[in-house]
Amino acid sequence: MKANSKVLPKSDLRKTFDTYYDALVQYANRFLVSKDECEDLIQDIFVDLWEKENTFPDEPSLRAYLYKAARNKCYNVIKHNKVKNKYAASTIQELEDDNLFLKQILEEEIVRQLHKAIDVLPERKKEIIKLSLKGIKNNEIAETLGIKLQTVKTLKSQSYKILRDQFKDLSTIIYFLLA
Amino acid sequence: MNDIFHISKLVIKKKLKVLTDAEKSQLKQFKRNYPFSKGINFEYITQRISEHIALDKQKAWEAVVIKAQQGQNTPVIPIYRKPWFKYTAAASVVFVLALTVFLNKDNNQQQFTEPIIVNNQIEKGTDKATLTLENGEQVTLTKGDTYQTQDATSNGEEIIYDSSSTSSELVYNHLTIPRGGQFHLILSDGTQVWLNSESQLKYPVAFNKGETRQVELVYGEAYFDVSPSTNHNGADFKVYHKDQEVQVLGTEFNIKAYKDEVNVYTTLVEGKVAVSYLDQSQNLNPGQQAALYTVQNKLEISNVNAIREIAWINGEFMLEHKTLTEIMQVLSRWYDMDVIFETEKLRDVRFVGVLGKDQSIIEILETIKNFGVITNYEINNKTITLK
């Protein structure tokens, strides 16, 4: 069947990887400047998962493990980095702060889920919804994008509906494949 | 950390103004416990979303696979003890290894018993169909085999009718999809049809120019991407199923009319269609579904998530608040199996999930088991028993 070719091979590890890879790299990027280095670190977390027989009772524990592992990896890199720069000390301090860690994860999770939700929208709606989320008023959006006020209103309300539909029933949902 | 994940959802829902009253008070409580969650700045969040550079995930994943293979000195032995492992095709071993990491709980906390599997003959479905020609001759189409008639060619995964053939008299073919099958069909007018397991479509080899194009979904499920009437001298397209008629002008929609289900569901993805049944007629807008309750003779419209309804054409089962009975009904068509509920109350357990049609039945049952929906299962030949 033709449509089948769009389907990726399924495995939970791969799904998990696809779901969280971006967010984890973004998180690491808060502390490490090089994006390549961040990608490397995060990939290592998945290599560990592949090799070890780690077990997780449910999806949130797996997700928590991923963020904690990312934090540890960043911490170790900075701590053991021979070349200390002037930022190292404050970065270490930041990484050691548990409350700050939770706050950063909260932000990453909001970004991750909103990004995923917005990503299904067509380009124009994406632009509008992002400006609107920033708190920019309709008339300013119209001006910024050079489109009619009425168009902004229509597209905006359609976009919000699509976003709302994605989050409406979430609390009662059990996700099978750690999606 | 669980709280944090929960808060993240609540914060988004608050921003989108879809918080329920219960959630409102939940969020209030959370904010007391985690004061930092009060200060979520959406300007910053949106900034980060915009900065979200799409990383090359495919490449990154390949890097993971390579690193994992290089470092794999010791095979993960315990997995081989799993009784179901030996039933898995060698080709998918790599993925099973990865999968097992998550699916198998620590043996110490394993509260479930091992499944009993005897002579498992349940296989996932493939592309296959039986083509019945106008003279009654039957041809089996399976993946890998090519087939050609005067009007059509097939590579065993799809069949394409020649757009140039014309005839003054309509000649009909039937395409029958067995349990465990699926097939893609392109009619002579360019209309595409995806047919699900246990389905049959009757259609003419060629349509008469300018006349209404008519096909019949004899039973089962089909997704239509209809070639617009403007390309066919305004000829509209009609799909019949028993007394229901769907009239279209160029659009995408799904019809579900299984033999073992009483109701008929027509879901519009794009465009416009009119669904008629006896003296009733309803227009559908995209995202709407017409449910035909054949017992009550009622045609009702509701809003649905159309993408979920048609996930099957992309190789997924998206199960939205379906009961285990309904889920097993869907699965048994694709895996061509029978299901026994040893525990009756399991029948009405509802849940949501995404399952891949390329998974083995054991992978799927293990997933359901690991979520505590069932405590165990048995497989005997082509029958599964849920406990």
UniProtKB/TrEMBL annotation, chain A:
The keyword Nucleotidyltransferase does not apply. InterPro entries: RNA_pol_sigma-70-like (IPR039425), RNA_pol_sigma-70_dom (IPR014284), RNA_pol_sigma70_bacteroid (IPR014327), RNA_pol_sigma70_r2 (IPR007627), RNA_pol_sigma70_r4_t2 (IPR013249), RNA_pol_sigma_r2 (IPR013325), RNA_pol_sigma_r3/r4-like (IPR013324), Tscrpt_reg_LuxR_C (IPR000792). Residues 17-81 form the RNA polymerase sigma-70 region domain. Keywords: Sigma factor, Transcription, Transcription regulation. Residues 112-161 form the RNA polymerase sigma factor 70 region 4 type domain. The keyword Nuclease does not apply. Belongs to the sigma-70 factor family. ECF subfamily. NCBIfam families: Sig70_bacteroi1, sigma70-ECF. This is RNA polymerase sigma-70 factor. The lineage of its organism: Bacteria, Pseudomonadati, Bacteroidota, Flavobacteriia, Flavobacteriales.
TrEMBL record, chain B:
Residues 178-273 form the FecR protein domain. It comes from the Bacteria. InterPro entries: FecR (IPR006860), FecR_C (IPR032508), Ferrdict_sens_TM (IPR012373). Pfam families: FecR (PF04773), FecR_C (PF16344). Residues 317-386 form the Protein FecR C-terminal domain. PANTHER family: PERIPLASMIC SIGNAL SENSOR AND SIGMA FACTOR ACTIVATOR FECR-RELATED, PROTEIN FECR. This is FecR domain-containing protein. The lineage of its organism: Bacteria, Pseudomonadati, Bacteroidota, Flavobacteriia, Flavobacteriales.
